Amino acid sequence: MHPRRSQSQLLCVAAFTILVSFVTRLCGHPQCTDFRPPFEPAQPPSHCVRYVESSCCTARQDSDLGEAFSAFLHGWNKTAPATNGEGSGGVVTSISDECQRELKALQCLTCSNFAAHAFDVESTGEEIGDGSGRVPGLCPATCRNLVGECGLDVLETFFKLQPSHEGNESSSTVASASTEFCTTWSLNDDIYCYPNILHTEVGELPPGVGVTSRDGDSPSEPADADNKCLCVEEVATGLVNPLSLATTYDGTGRLFIGEQQGIIKILTAEGTVLAEPYLDMHTVVGTHNGFGDERGLLGLAVHPHFKTNRKFYTYYSHYTVSGKHLSRVSEWKQSRDNPDRADDMSERIILSFQQPQNNHNGGQITFGPDGYLYVFSGDGGGAGDKHGDIGNAQNMSTLLGKILRIDVNTRHPRALYSVPGDNPFIGRSNTRPEIYAYGLRNPWRCSFDRGDNLTGHGAGRLFCGDVGQRKREEIDIITKGGDYGWRGLEGTLCYDQKLCKQLRSKFSGHDLCAPCPDSYGPPSNAWNSQSRGNSLLL
């Protein structure tokens, strides 16, 4: 048992403990090439046997890959042209065992938990099937070695690429084509390029990656621990994918912990997780609770007057009978008779909106200092917000890619909430009045500033971590009516050229790399994110 500690101490330590549990498990974000999460195969794979516990390939897809691999080897042995002795990536008549191993590993990256990153599909926004006509990202040195081991003809035939030097087998032509091949298919990403991705799959950093340097030039031992250490204390165990944490405001010192599959548990002030769930809502939550799934019970907020009204709120994924994927914000009440249990019949669906894809659901909900409920929604998923001409995040008639602000204490005649009278877009045509700010890609975690302990300076500011597409992650200070640029801007960079040009005009010539007027909102801080799949937790 832990000695009794203050609510704020326990909340802080628990949050850091949960954060560290995720960081140690994952180097990035698992995602398949169709933007869905990986899953546990129904039966063990026979070809891509590496992916037996979690995979992006069904048994049928695995079988098809195996048949395609065998057909390639058989076909090459029958039709391979005679060598002219050039070597160095030119024509080969037989495929070495080492080359076969490499080709199989590359083909099977389609089944990797990080297949979307291996094939860089979030950069192009294009779903791929078995990878035909496309090579997974190669570490530059590996690409050169692969061309030397297998030969360019083998690689181009295996990946069904257009021949680059057909009819001209001179040394200079082959060398030039080989250089062009590696220029095209090398991935300058130490985490997800092959073969480093094989380390990422098992939760390890590739050799030499992430090693800090004292002088900033060459790898060395990590800097002194005294200057870099973040110390944490374990306060709870036995949790499954805990995503949210909320204080109860009732003087008990309890915390509610929301698990992704739809279970809410109580962590007592003494540090004990109660065996019986506070609420089990897994039957209405849409998630397979597997590696990389972005759906589930994503947000949890307790009403500031919980002590008297017993109300709390959830944001979760739900599938209708017809298969529609919805995001739901619901109100619940604690049981009158048992403070350790919620009334599982008390749900009232406050807000519901459809999600076109499985990913980019956002999901946090929190009460602001003004007493209103803030809801953070993603852009609807896929990659590049390719929903309509301008994307969901810039479309003011949809709730996707937005920060919403609603009043759950006052009902509208046709809804279980009302819209605060000072919301910035009330009365604007073709615009949802719930919108407080827009232009977000996937605002995963956000937090209100409690202010300086002595002066109170900064109190009430809303910070949001918005997950980047490829090159930029950002932290935004959210202001009422702010446009944070997506999909025209990714951080301070142009993503959609046409929309970016419009936004630059809108920002009236302000430098997008400098703080912008409060009425607009390009990121307050942004940085490179060449290792795709990283996100921000606030």
Task: Describe what is shown at a glance.
With 538 residues, the protein is of the alpha+beta class.
Q: How many beta-strand elements?
A: 18
Order of the strands making up the biggest sheet: 1-2-3-4
List low-confidence stretches: 1-27, 82-90, 211-225, 509-521, 530-535
**Helical proportion, percent range:** 10-25%
- The CA-CA distance between the termini, in Å, is 28 Å
Tell me what you see in this structure:
The model is unreliable at 1-27, 82-90, 211-225, 509-521 and 530-535 (pLDDT under 50). It is globular and about 80 Å long. Strand 16 (489-490) and strand 17 form a beta hairpin. Helix 6 crosses helix 8. With 538 residues, it is α+β, with helices and mostly antiparallel strands. The chain contains twelve helices and 18 strands. The strands form five sheets. Strands 1-2-3-4 form a four-stranded antiparallel β-sheet, with helices on one face. It has a four-stranded antiparallel β-sheet with strand order 5-6-7-8, with no helix packed on it. Strands 9-10-11-12 form a four-stranded antiparallel β-sheet, with no helix packed on it. The chain has helices at 7-25, 59-79, 97-108, 115-118, 121-124, 140-150, 152-158, 171-185, 197-201, 225-228, 306-309, 497-506, and strands spanning 242-247, 255-259, 263-267, 279-280, 297-302, 311-319, 325-334, 342-354, 365-367, 373-376, 402-406, 435-438, 443-448, 462-466, 472-478, 489-490, 493-494, 525-528. It is 22% helix and 18% strand.
